[in-house]
Batch of 3 targets.
Target 1
Amino acid sequence: MTGEDSSSESRLKVLHRDGLMLIIDKPAGVPVHRGPKGGASLEDEFDGLRFGLPRAPALAHRLDRETAGCLVLGRHRKALARLGELFKQGKVRKAYWALVAGGPAADEGFIDKPLGRLDVTRGWWMKVDPSGQSAQTRWRVLGRGVWNGAPIAWLEMSPLTGRTHQLRVHAASEGWPILGDGIYGERDTGIPLQLLARRIEVPYSANKPAVTAEAPAPEHMGAALQACGFGGEPGESVENLGR
């Protein structure tokens, strides 16, 4: 079943549900699992996403706390193992929307820059590192505009590898950091990270079409998207963007 579905026991929007997996619309600002110091996390909501199964679903991959959009959950152990293989093998196709400061001169491109840990004191902060792990990203410009008095660009970014903070580091390394990125871009702007896991394609079965889901643009990205020419989701009025 594909489309907007929801559980009465969970506040999370379900973009796709079948017997093997769920794809949910992760809200920005919420970690997917508890950190070493505890605290609330997205996993707290998973029991309300059982939909009749005896166990709650579990994470098949991760999204950063600040990132919104498509997140895949496996509904049982066999499905989780299969999903884990697909992500590890790079067979799951992902497309993100990013709003960046300034923007690239070209309309499309390819970034091939290995990434490594910044240093042992900074957790999972990353940097471009020639001796690091391979990291590749394709991108294309979907729109350009001016927001808050400065030029910005709306990009679709497709990671071909799955490194931590890959899109954020790659964008910053090209000179156009993602807006609201207080780690790799300008700090203390008060702007939430303008990054959305827009679309995902999961080829779970060899003899069936890939499972596809698309997350709507979140409210906190609406104003900048509109400045770049985004007209809203189907059926949504332009006046509702960014509200």
Note: The first helix runs from residue 77 to 88.
Target 2
Amino acid sequence: MKCNSGSDAEYSDTLFSDHHRIRTNRVALPFSHITLKTQKPLSSAYPTTLNTIGDHLRKRRLDLELFQKDVAKMLGVGEPSIYNWENNLAEPAIKYIPKIIKFLGHVPFKTSTKSTGEKIVTYRKLRGLSQKKLACHLGIDPCTLSKWERNKRLPSKRVLKEIERT
């Protein structure tokens, strides 16, 4: 074995045949037994703060090393929807919230509420129900439900008990 000392770093040559040499481009440091380990830096796409559902989705997707198309398939939406949610260009429709919560493993929005209206909205979101569907389930008019959510009117005690159970 021959060493080339033409530069600061020394490279080793290996005899290939009688007249040819192959450079392996490895620095010859036989005395060094140090192994450096560090954590891989986070992607620049990794969210620094988790303010929106899109931020939570992107963080979870990057943690799992998934592509947007993979998450889209899991949630039953198109890839552009994931892109729009992650870039905060759109909010997911309420019907996708339960699947998103399952994918994330946690609820990505505030659930501790004070007003009756906020409790009703949270109840609907967690179940992925539109106002129309919840109103139908409760046997009331959607306009009445809307007034409850805006705290313009109070629901009956029966409805309040059902909502407070969750």
Note: The mean pLDDT is 82.
Target 3
Amino acid sequence: MQDDPFNRPLRPLPLLIFSSRWLQLPLYLGLIAAQCVYVFLFLKELSHLILHAFEFTEQQIMLMVLGLIDVVMISNLLIMVIVGGYETFVSRLGLEGHRDQPEWLSHVNAGILKVKLAMAIIGISSIHLLRTFIEATALGTANARVTEQGVMWQAIIHGLFILSAIGIAYVDRMTQTRH
């Protein structure tokens, strides 16, 4: 009978190091709690929109809907981090062949996860920037919620997010072709 290298017990130090990945479990549970908070926020904002729809202007409704989209996109980002991070760094979820397995999970690794997270952050930033541009119509009035400098910095930061995502994708592609 041959010794199976995959089922051989680890020595104490490698076992300790390998087992330390479970220290991330409370972090992922905390993100699940944060996800619950976002569900509550979404329901609160949605009920506010529905209850006051007849009182709001079109612009106010648009801003509230953008807020709802923003909450959903952040929630999607949380799901990617929770599921993808747990699967990549802690333990397999064992979802192979499950009908509800997310398509992207079957080929997730740290590089792909970084690119997906960067793209999600760009999407969230785009929603914030769009809200800022809509609110910028009030610039120069007493009701203005944004300043010209605020709009400029948001646009610059958004551009930096895009450049960072391009850089991350480029580095990931370079490392994939060399392996």
Note: Residues 58-90 form the longest helix (33 residues).
